[in-house]
Design goal:
Elements: E1 10-14, E2 17-23, E3 32-39, E4 43-44, E5 48-50, E6 54-60, E7 62-67, E8 70-75, E9 79-82, E10 87-92, E11 98-105, E12 110-111, E13 117-118
Antiparallel strand pairs: 1-2, 2-3, 3-11, 4-10, 5-10, 5-12, 6-9, 6-11, 7-8, 7-10, 12-13
Length: 124
């Protein structure tokens, strides 16, 4: 299906973040996945190692991204590119919620520090 309206996007919640999926195999995309992440103020997700490259565009607020030990606080309009195999952390250390747009390829998985593997449905 070539068009996804806002009310057709699929919502998932994990680690305190809301993932609003607009492009995934379940929505008709064969190669790419894209979603909006809504990150509450004062929150941080667990570090994880990603199997595929991810591109992050900060839409609103500020987000702290850590990629392989390098940390940067990004504001609206800033982009980060995390290569496949990188260890990634996303946090919102501010007092305001933040939004981001993330794009990757279908089949992304994430390995948590305890070795557990996550196959997020918004990236399948």
């Amino acid at each position: 299906m070539p068009f996804i309206t806002a009310n057709e996007a699929v919502v998932h919640d994990m680690h305190g973040v809301r993932f609003v999926s607009y492009a995934a195999s379940a929505l008709g995309s064969r190669e790419l996945c894209a979603w909006r992440g809504e990150v509450p103020a004062g929150s941080s997700g667990p570090p994880h190692t990603i199997s595929r490259e991810e591109v992050f565009l900060v839409l609103s607020g500020s987000l702290e991204l850590t990629i392989d030990g390098s940390t940067r606080l990004l504001g609206a309009g800033d982009v980060a590119i995390a290569p496949a195999g990188a260890t990634l952390g996303v946090a919102n250390p501010t007092e305001e919620p933040a939004g981001m747009w993330v794009t990757t390829s279908v089949g992304l998985t994430a390995t948590l520090p305890d070795g557990s593997l996550i196959s997020p449905p918004w990236a399948s």
